[in-house]
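Exercise (ungraded).
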Amino acid sequence: MSAKLILSMDGAVIKEYPLTKERTTIGRKAHNDIAIDNLAVSGEHAAVITILNDSFFEDLGSTNGSMVNGAPAQKHFLQNADVIEIGKYKLKYLNDQPTQVPSADFEKTMVLRAPPKPSPINLGENFNHTQTNIGVPIVKPEATTQFNTTAPKPEVKAATVATPAVPAAVIQILNGPNLGKELELNKNLTTLGKPGVQVAVLARRPHGFFITHVEGANFPLVNGASVGEQPQQLKDHDIIELAGVKMEFYFKS
Amino acid sequence: MNISEALEIVGQTNPGMVRSHNEDSISFDAQSGLIVLADGMGGYNAGEVASGIAVSVLSSEVKHRLENDEPNNIDTETGEEVGAALLRANVIKANLSIFNAAQSQPQYAGMGTTIVSGLFYDNRVVVAHVGDSRMYRLRGEVFETVTRDHSLLQEQIDSGIISKEMARLSKNKNLVTRAVGIEAGVEPEVHVHDVQVGDIYLFCSDGLNDMVEDDDIGETLKMLQGNLSLAATQLIEQANDNGGRDNVSVILVKVKGSFAAQTGWWAKLKSWFKN
């Protein structure tokens, strides 16, 4: 499924252009791939470079400039639903190839046929004269699809490293000089204790908070019982004891 | 300090949440200071075969040669240090083994693997890599990648058409520009780096760094450096909690002491007796 640009003016769609070429040109002159016959558009106004699943917009030094999503743009790495504006014309970029989402073909590591002498792709400063010596990507055949049929797989969340939807929680110190102090557990990992003496880590995971012993001769206690080597899930109002400090874990609600 | 006392090494590999096969292979050995990690690709079980060949060729050949040689000696054939020459030569050897197997067995056609390999010696580490498996280093507060991926995305970053920050939005992930076993020849990238006491090295497959942001990986290592195997477990857990779409492998190396090569008369005498 290739990406495309949809040309419109005043909300009326004029034409759709699939981005099948490495370089798609936009301008007033007829030889452009996307020719817009309007005096506000320069003869060679802009170009869109497409490298496999990514596209990049570049203004070619046009007289009246280009905007992307309402801001003047020279170069722009296009994301799905970005809107390029040239004069009164709008070009909407659509690419429904999801970023990092399991589509068996694309998830798999693939090898690009490397040039005999590995040389960087020359897309430097001036990608007017783009030369990609990327050959056809070698898609490793059937790899995941084969395996996928063997067993039902857990549903994968589409998010790129989304923050897990765990309710916010805090630790409140119950004794000693820091009595009453609260520590918000707003990171994936929070360590408690003194390095070299006794340290435990609290891990925030999609299904809750877990305490694990990190170092020290003694294990932390939860509600008076030693947690041992294994991670232990924390429940609302659990009491943790570590290096002589007592604290309470609870969910903020 | 001898090297097996100076280095603490842990390694874990996990199939992830989505795949039923683990195509990664790892090997590490504190005696020789050698670390090998490979991320295979190819249909059926060819990915495992490719990464397995790579790891076994490297680990057995390097260890074998080091029984009678020292990594900091000069290799007579190439004029470079034995450590660097060994890694380079054996990545090339692994490449040929995989390529030949793929040519002769139809079910292995097109298989290949990435590789990252490190050899610690004389307060240094020589690193050879091909593809997008990485080595990172935590030194003090600074956590950074040491290897540079052989991938389309990295080339785009290098040539300035896409910024590091924007790279995470790219839809061209997982496209490597070099791999072991795909063609008859391969050019491993080999560099030697100084090692300091307190450094932590992370070797990983892209199943980790595609799923967990570098900052989070670095934070985890800083927090859990007191318990290396827990750190490895936590990294894999984070990759899996974030979706675990690929196999995940991590090898952590903590430098606990100096391991300078012994060059004095005593070392010579000892090695004379050993032979």
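Further reading is listed at the end of the chapter. For now, observe: DSSP finds two helices and 23 strands in chain A. Residues 100-107, 114-162 of chain A have pLDDT under 50 and may be disordered.
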